[in-house]
Structures are given as structure tokens and as C-alpha cells.
Amino acid sequence: MSHTAQQFQQLTTPWRDRLFSVAVRQTDSRQRAEDWVQESMLKAWKHFSDLKETETVYAWLLKILHSVIVDDVRRESRRAQLAPVVSVEDEELQKHSSSAAGPFEELLQKQNQEQVKTAISTLPSEFREVLLFRDVEGLSYLEISEILGIPKGTVMSRLSRARRMLSSIIIKSSNNSSNHVRAKSTGGMS
Amino acid sequence: MNASYNTEDTKWQELHTALQDLLAGYADNELEDDEVMIVEAHLAGCRLCRDDLARQFSLSHHLSSLPLERMSASLHEKLDRITEQPQNTVETQRQTPKVSTPARWLERQWLKLAFSTGGWATAFALVVTLYMQQIPNVPHSNIPMVADALSEYQTAQQDILPVSQQLTEAPASWPGGTLLSSWETSIGGAPAQVYAMRSGKDIVFQYRINESVLFRNPEVRQAIAQQGSYSSEKNGTEIRALPMKSSGLLMVGPRRAMPAVNDLKIKTI
Ligand SMILES: [Zn+2]
Questions:
Q1: Which of A168, B130, B179, B205 has the fewest CB atoms nearer than 10 Å to its CB?
Q2: pTM as predicted
Q3: What percent of chain B has pLDDT over 90?
Q4: How does pLDDT run across A102-125, given as a tens digit for each residue?
Q5: How far off is chain A from B256, nearest CA to CA, in Å?
Q6: How far apart are CA A47 and CA A24, in angstroms?
Q7: In this structure, are residues B241 and B149 in contact, taking their beta carbons and an 8 Å threshold?
Q8: Are A172 and A187 in contact (CB under 8 A)?
Q9: Is residue A67 classed exposed, middle or buried when 0-12, 13-18 and 19+ CB atoms within 10 A define those classes?
Q10: Residue B196 belongs to a domain
């Protein structure tokens, strides 16, 4: 194995599963997530020389993965998702007793991983991505803004809304689990 | 005073709506000090935002412990062999880091300049522009002054240029050409002044040189006598030499970035 190849493997192998984790939370098909990761790693290898000294390897890989996913999803469908804005006034949310701090924490503790995963998967992709990068992967706003090519302020507003949407999905699904779980994008509609 | 009460109320409502987009930043300690003060003042009087903030904290904490998902062993094996695939041809660039260094050097120059003139937005646009540039391979010449100018231009590609001195006006100007930096140098054994100009997406150097240096070479002398200027091109890099009132002008740059002769405005001082 050449020196470059060895260096590439050393730097990227530790991130493989984390990269896959991010991918698999953005699709319901593990196979598709694996395809994304494979394509991303191939791109990373081909463009290994683009990795800047100041850049962290993981952020660089996520940036590549992001572009692979965006390309793939765009190829497949062009459905324009309206950005749902859930405000803190969301009446339906207010009705639920578990929207208050303590009860919400309890509710979260009761969620199993599958439920959380499903809830995350119903978020519109641009909100889901920011939420995964920040809350699951622990990246800073600056890193996220660089990966996605958006201003820090946009990272913040998307994240605020993503968490609000996710809370609302979890709260609503807990109280009427027999109902259709999918979150309605606008507050007050049912 | 119903009217004034309503105005206050509207303002409060506006703030309440706007701050909802900052709550994540507050929870994550990513706000500026002044923003923190505004958010805290609002939180003190708004239960809805307090509840939302509490949910953001809980959720964020909860998500941080989601377990790692693991890819299949077969994908791991495929990735082990991925380095058997050919890399892109950028590999050649790795061995000659010249291509990326001038961008870095020029970026610094740009930042300094843009700070004094156009501020950050300009600086950003310029840096993006500069990263796109590709300086072609610089050729050699057996005319000493041309060789000197080329070598200076080449030095820029190796990132060891002197930091810009005060910006005076360049002898030649053209539409879309902006002066970046200027410093003293030596051309043909005599003192000269270099002016690094941005032209389109590339960099063009112009030199104010000693008149006797300009006319020293017979080839150059003849071209100037016949066409008013000397010019030559090799590997995409163009050299141009022309007389000014009491000195000479020498220009070096990628051919695509060189201004048309008619566009050149020369200060004949
Ligand atoms: Zn509020």
C-alpha cells in the first residue's frame, strides 16, 4: 500500500461508522445509507489532496457525505418541502401536559430508540441534518455552517426549529399513538 | 392609552417571535453577549419560551446519547480496498504545491486591502475569486529584463514575496484591473517597482523599469520601434513591454487576463 493510501486509511477508518450513523438516520434503507457512505469514501479518496491541514477529517467527510446525499435525493425527486415553522404557540402542543419541562423530560426517558429514530426521520431533511450534526454528532455551529455552506445564524434558526418540531412530534405521538404519527407541519391543524 | 399599550404589545410579540430562532443558540452557548442579555430579559417574562428552552435542553442531551449505528462487515471490507482505486490527477498538484501557495499569499494581501476599503463582504468575494485562479507554468526567457520579471512572477507562486508597501498608483490601469500590492524590486540590474494587479480571476504584474533597461535588448528595441510595444507569449503566460515618458513598462500575466492594448491607460509620468 502506498504511503498516501496508508495515510488515507489511518485518517478515515475511525470515522466510518459515525459517517454511516449519520447516513442511516437520513433514509429508511440501510442499503442506501451504505451506498452513500461508499460513494463518499471513494470521493474522499479521489480528492484526498483537497483535505486542508486546518480542517478536521470528520467535518471534511461529512461535507462530502452531505453533497452525495443532496445529489442523490435531488436526482430522485424534486418535491419541494415547505419549511414548517412550529412556533412555541403551537396550540396543539400547548394542550399536552407533557409540554412542560419536567413532564417532557420524563416522556423522553420513556422513548425507545426506535421511536426517536422514527421521529427524527419525519423531519424535513435540512432540519434533520442540522439536528443530527449538532445534537447527535456534537459539531459546533461554525463547523456545521462550513459543512453545509450556510451562515451560522441559519444553523441556529434551523436547529431551534428542528428541536421544536421534534419535541412536538414526540409529544403528539405519545398522546395519540393510535393516530397517524406524522407531524403536521403547521401548528393548530389536525 | 390603549394605542401605546398595543404598540408595546406588538413589539413584545415581534421580539418573542424573533427570539424563538435564537433559543437553540442560547441552549448551546453559541450567542453573543448582547444576544444573551436580550434572550434572558425575555425569558424572565415568557413562559412559552422558557418551556421551549427546557425542551431544547432535554432533547439535545437525550440525542447526544443515541447509539452508534454500525455498517456491515462487507462494506468495511470494500472500504479497506477503496485506495486501490485511482486517485484524481490532482495528485500531480500535491508534488508541486506552487499552485496553491500564491492563492494563500494573495489572500493575505487581499484581506489587508479589503479591510481598508470594502470590508468583509468584499474580502470574502475576493478570496473566493482568488482560490479559483490558476497561474500557468511560467516560461523562461533569454532577455534579462524579461527573465527578471518572470522570475519575480514565479516567486509569487512560491509564497515568498515581500509584504505590500503603501499603495501608490500603478503606471497602467485598465477596466477590471485592481491594484493589490506594490513593492520595490530590481529588473535588469536597475531598481524597479512592481505592482500586483488583479485582472479578472488572475493576477497580472506590472513593472515600472529603467528606460535604459527597456531598450537594452535589440529584439525588444526593434519591436517597440515597429509596433510601439514588445510582446511574447509562452505556455499561456504573456510578457509585454512598452515605453513610457521617462521609464519603461513591463507586464507579466496569464494571457487571458492581459488587458487589450486599447484598454490600457498609461500614466505617462
Ligand atoms: Zn417568548
A1: B179
A2: 0.56
A3: 20
A4: 889 999 999 888 889 889 988 998
A5: 26
A6: 24
A7: no
A8: no
A9: middle
A10: yes
CB B59 within 8 A of CB A107: no
> What are the C-alpha distances in Å from A66 to residues A62, A125, B6?
6, 11, 46
Inter-chain touch A101–B71, beta carbons under 8 Å: no
Let me know whether B22 and B126 are in one domain: no
Distance CA B236, CA B242 (A): 20
Kindly report the nearest CA distance between residue A60 and chain B, in angstroms: 17
Q: CATH says A3-75 is which class?
A: mainly alpha
Residue B130, CA distances (Å) to A58, B169, B171, B255 in order: 26, 22, 23, 17
Fold of A91-185: Arc Repressor Mutant, subunit A (1.10.10)
Residue B268 lies in a domain: no
Where is the domain boundary, B92, B119, B135?
B135
> Is residue A83 within 8 angstroms of chain B, CB to CB?
no
Say how many C-beta atoms besides its own lie within 10 A of residue B241's C-beta: 27
Query: ipTM of the predicted structure?
Result: 0.83
- Asked if A16 lies within 8 A of B71 by C-beta distance, the reply is yes
- Looking at the domain assignment, is residue B3 inside a domain? no
Cα torsion through B19, B24, B28, B29, rounded to 10: -10
Please, which residues bridge with residue B190 across strands?
B187
The SS3 call for residue B191 is strand
Q: Where in chain A is the domain with CATH 1.10.1740.10?
A: 3-75
Instruction: State how many domains chain B has.
Output: 3
Q: Do B21 and A1 touch (CB under 8 A)?
A: no
